[in-house]
Amino acid sequence: MATAAHMLTPLPRLSRTVAEWVESVRELTQPRAIQWCEGTEAEARELTAQLLKNGELKALNEQHFPGCHLARSAPNDVARVEHLTYICTRSPEDAGPNNNWMDPQQAHAKLRELFRGCMRERTLYVIPYCMGPIDSPLSRCGVEITDSPYVVLNMLIMTRAGRAALERIAQNGSFVRGLHSTGELDPERRFIMHFPEELSIESFGSGYGGNALLGKKCHALRIASWQARTEGWLAEHMLIVGLQNPSGETHYVACAFPSGCGKTNLAMLIPPGSLPGWRVFTVGDDIAWLHPGADGRLWAINPEAGLFGVVPGTNPDTNRNAYEMIRRDTLFTNVALTADNQPWWEGLTTGKPVLDWQGRRYDPARGPAAHPNSRFTVSARRNPAWSPHSEDACGVPISALVFGGRRREVAPLVYEARDWQHGVLVGASVASETTAAAVGQVGVTRRDPMAMKPFCGYNFGDYWQHWLSVGARLARPPRIYQVNWFRRDAQGKFLWPGYGENLRVLAWMLGRCAGKAGAVESAIGWLPGPQDLDLRGLNVGPEALAALLTVDPGLWRKELAEIREYLSSYGNRLPAALLTELKNTEQRLA
Ligand code: SAT
Ligand code: MN
User: Hey, which of 77, 80, 237 would you mutate to test ligand 1's pocket, going by the most ligand atoms within 8 Å of its Cβ?
Assistant: First the structure.
């Protein structure tokens, strides 16, 4: 067995705490072998070769998609499982009405029985990883133990994993413990448990991204949001994008949207030809860690090193950057295949599928060829718009924060909050239609404050209070906006073209930050007048534009009543300041 040799690697000697934890997990799970991940390219090649050999990976057309592979998940394991995701704090109030809660002792006991002996005949992989640039004081480390080589391959792309991370852990001692096993992939024996008070995660029974790549949503959002509160920063479900204006200045914006609402596309947006001189740089596409800086501004790092994005809809017209990015060295999950072994998905205008995402002969009667939540995993450096500032240890300064959702009506294209405190209410009030990123019904409107409903590791009431406290520490806080790219007309047609054209809205925000762009006051905040947006070369008629910028008093009265009811469910944990902001908005509307 190759195992013994792997066990002799010097890695465990680097950190006794990690080695002791690995030993206790070995006793519990009884793996056939242990492999410590070094984070080298050779290691990734070896793992890939092994998965190709046992059929868990398929190599794609080498001419058109060099270095690309396809993984197919179990058909019942294709998305996050929010109903099986728990926050296990001693007091249920600390998890809040926004989370499923289980008593930590009970959760540990339940999971211990599932993990007992679960790795027999399997290899236990130890993945030390660093979320954020390896030399940044803002970064935090973790170790994931998993029995899934697919998870290892993903983590090697998505995080800075291996020896350097373990060295950092050995130096400062603290790390998040993530224990994962795919188990039997039985949805009846599937749990994603978080123990924020212990900085640990236990995930059993799923191999899917957000359930299994523990550095991502489990660590970098649920556990990190808790850490951030105790340490005075924010862990958010936000992309980070740098916008260079025609005068050559770059400003950074961080935007929160629920899963499947276009964060990746916005992060690598292609400026429309009719707005010459703009350039766009991606710092992150999913998660931002925001820290108050000594200069009174908010500074952001992207804790991730790769992108785990939704494939369907990607094409050279909607987003050439994304399309180019995933044509090489990319791991695809649950896409369809063409006759010549190229990946295929809905939204591609060329090629046609012969095998669906389950590897069956494609039959349109059975639904889409690629799963609607099929994904690509790719290094951030493959993105043609990748910002070298992604590696800056101090992060990038944020000029504006944007909250968004997917709403057919009510929410206008964009509006600006009156100040930080009002902005926290604006973020807390976001509602959005559900998408295929999570198991459950798609298209149902639900409250998704700060796009963190599935990801906040503690009571939303305390979380909003923490937002208010962070804002109070910022001498130069970012301005706060809400956007809605998804408003429709009476016929159900989208009113706004989205994609690259969204730059026009971002440019207005930066104009506001520079004190240059105009705005019209409304009851809910400041909106651009039609003349305040740069609409050169845009094919949106005056009526559509008016509809996009309308705040309908009747609809908004209803909306505010719903927001009041929702916020009230947080009882005495709800900050009084948010109720004051809500009352003020209600009065302005009346
Ligand atoms: O599966 S992930 O949680 O990583 C993607 C998403 O739902 O945002
Ligand atoms: Mn996400």
Answer: 80
From the CB of residue 286, how many other CB atoms can be counted at a distance below 10 Å?
26
Q: From its phi and psi, is residue 156 left (phi > 0), alpha (psi between -120 and 50) or beta? A: alpha
pLDDT average per 10 residues of sequence, the chain (590 residues): 53 95 98 97 97 98 98 97 97 98 98 98 98 98 98 98 98 96 97 98 97 98 98 98 97 95 94 97 98 98 97 93 97 98 97 98 98 97 97 98 94 98 98 92 94 98 98 98 96 95 98 98 97 95 96 96 98 98 97
- Structural domains in the chain, CATH included, are 4-60+74-231 (3.40.449.10), 235-306+387-589 (3.90.228.20), 307-382 (2.170.8.10)
For residue 489, the CA-to-ligand 1 centroid distance in Å is: 30
Specify the ligand 1 atom closest to the Cα of 79.
1
Is 261 annotated in the active site?
yes
Report which DSSP code applies to 215: I
Candidate of 151, 157, 208, 216 to mutate for ligand 1, largest count of ligand atoms within 8 Å of Cβ: 216
Q: Is residue 236 within 8 Å of 287, Cβ to Cβ?
A: yes
